Amino acid sequence: MALSFMHYKGKVAIFVATLAVIFFAAPLIYGLLTTSATIGSSGSVKSVGVRVYWESSCVNEVSSIDWGVVDRILQERHGLR
């Protein structure tokens, strides 16, 4: 009877130790598998021999574009990830 209790106690200890390792390793594993990138929200417009305008009436010439904040729907629609 003492042997079966010790056997049971050993299995419980291994189970608890395994859960503890998973619990404490999960954030580390998540951090290693997750990436993020920050990209600029504006860019310069350069053209050679051509002028670029905001509108078809060619009144306001463009030197830079500020994209602002790109929301999740636009990212998914245009394949930005």
Describe this structure in words.
- By secondary structure, the protein is mainly α.
- The chain folds into 2 domains: 1-35; 40-81, no CATH class.
- The chain is built from 2 helices and 2 strands, in the order αββα.
- The protein has a two-stranded antiparallel sheet.
- It starts with a helix and ends with a helix.
Attribute tags:
about 80 residues, mainly alpha, 2 domains, two-stranded antiparallel sheet, about 45% helix, rod-shaped
N-to-C terminal Cα separation, in Å? Answer: 60 Å
The rough form would be described as rod-shaped
- Report the count of strand segments: 2
H/E topology pattern: HEEH
Widest β-sheet, arrangement of strands: 1-2
| Relative strand content | 5-15%
Rg value = 29 Å
Largest sheet: 2 strands, antiparallel
Indicate the structural class: mainly alpha
DSSP helix fraction: 40-55%
Mean pLDDT: 79
Oligomer: single chain
- The figure for the number of domains is 2
